[in-house]
Protein: Iron complex outermembrane recepter protein
Amino acid sequence: MNLKTGLLITAFILLAAFSIQAQDCKLSIRGKIIHLENNEPIEAAYVWIVEAEEGAVSDQNGNFTVKNLCLGTYTLTIQYIGHKTITDTVNLESNNYSKTYRLEDEALELSGVEIHGHRDAVQTTSSVSALYGENLLESRGENLGESLKRISGVSTFSTGNSIAKPVIHGMHSNRIMIMNNGIRLEGQQWGAEHAPEIDPFLADEITVVKGAETVRYGPEAMGGVILVNPAPLPTNKFRKTSLNLIGGTNGRMGNINVVHAGGSEKIKGFGYRIQGSAKRSGNIKSPDYFQDNTGVSELNLSTSLGYSTSKLGVEAYYSLFHSELGILNDSHTGNLSDLENIIENGRPFGDGEFTYDIVNPKQRVTHHLAKLKSHYHISESWKVNFQYGFQLNHRQEFDKRRGDLNEKASLDLELFTNTLDLYVNHTHKNELSGTWGLNLIQQANSNVPGTGVTPLIPNYDMVNVGMYAMEKYSKGPLEVEAGVRFDFRNVNTARYINQELQTADLNYQNFSAFLGGLYHISPDLTFNSNLGSAWRPPNVNELFSEGLHHGAAAVEIGDPDLKSEKSLKWINELQYDGNKTHLEFTAYLNPIQDYIYLNPTGETYVSLRGTFNVYEYLQANAFFYGFDFAGSYEFTDKISGYLKGAIVQAKNTEEDNYLPFIPSNRLDWGVSYDFAKATDSRTNKLTLSNVLVAKQSREPDFDIAPAPPAYALFNLAYNRQLTVGENKLNLGLQVQNLFNTNYKDYMNRFRYFTYDMGRNVLLKINYEF
Structure:
């Protein structure tokens, strides 16, 4: 071998070695950081690779990635304030290394740092969206249903402009469970015009789970779950007060809210919070006229006490919701020709006038909720939880009546609910975690005597017992979970019809299960899929309604032979989070066997109190499917935009026609300009947005009036955050329906009688001190 050949071979070997080394230095370490106590992801934990002198910070999902590492052994440390540091040795041999790290709380006394107790995480591989921070602040003053319309795939089913029920993927009422601070909200939610008895001001975060969640929460969660959670109580010395003042031009609305939270310096682990709000508005104005008797009066209160140590946690909670609201006068007509004329006219014949007075027809609702919750750490990995909830819901609906009867409620219901939850969480430093539990619900619903009207629904007693188990496997970018549940329900009813006692004793039982997975394809891209079976027994109103439902201005007829609904929902979601781009796309299929729906018959009922349309509860196999999407993009440091929309398809597969009251296609987009300097983190933003709602072309074979035409609404919002000493002052100016557009929404039950709300200018002030 000559010298030249030897040099060439040597150069080739060195080049190959360099190439291999370069290839081997493109490896990465990926992981997920969560709380050991409750599996909640930890954002902003610091990860450091000692030998490489490289680091990373976990994102909002607890994920981190350290890139451009070579083959070898590394020392990895993870640090997060208030938690024990983890040190791990990683032997990096391939590009597939990933691991889940669970951080343990560490008792520290930190001066000037806000420390809160933990709340249970939303442990699900289903599609989850949340309203918090700036978005939640912008929604203040709206009811729960209107607030949640900011989330793609969520709309409302309304009765006028004051009553709105959340709709998730085309489902509402008894198919959507609302959790108020961990307690399932139990009111008369079966009514289309029965808004959730909850004050959105108590929430620090509102989370929407779009999958079938009956295993986790019970039969009424087949369409999804809404979690309304206050902030965790402080556990150290801490004081904070938040004041919200809101005024609106339409209805001349005023809204005030005060929240104060604190922690004790002398009693470590003790925290408290008290919150109250009041709201008053008068007659709503459509672009050309006032809607008579559409005022609202609301008064709410909540308070919490908690004590937490490293082993034990105890919390007591109470909330009061009281509301009185008017029902549009023109929805109650005198005779058949009046009803036909106003439907044909599409609006009231008079222009009305403004007043704060609320007269019959109206609703008056009072809801009490009390909760006692405790948990105890049996060991580092096992925690037992106990929760008891009591609720009293008193609903009164008043109709136009003669003489002394006008002061008496036509529908007067008292619902008592006791719930008991006993469950065990286990989390380990390896990849396994899970929950096993027992759930008990007892209800007694009574018609208060003296209304002078045959009750719409009978008195009933209900007992539901549920047992469930869920297990989750987490390793780096992969999460897999499965669960199974069994429920048994007994319902006893009784009422007098024509002085004859009618009773029923009904039993329902079923299994439900789910299997789901989530995978982080890359640090920016996540895919999750969840397949869940669900069921729902028919509600008492669906079985036994017989008469005039005053708040809905309709006669409703039940069917005692209705069967339980059964469904199988498959939901898939793809999320991308880049530096300037956020995208999420959700698609679902949901066949439902024996779907129950309220259908207009085309008939009318004439009585001394007026003429009303007649509806009946029917049952058929149905197929729901659709998709929703949301995205945002930062065009420049100053300009950003968002786009979101939803399409819901629902069909009666037995008769090959469409179901009533399914949301039409909608698209929402907006563009924002940020006036703040790059170095200023305070909000200073102007947003122009547009809501496009298509005409519902998939109408049922019969409806009282055709679906209204498509509409487009423009909205304008300006939000500014100021610093007053060490405190924050948030100012907001919003103009809804900027061009005062006349429109009707298909999902508004009063679209037969009136247009929706006209322009509304809102001034919002939030001061935190």
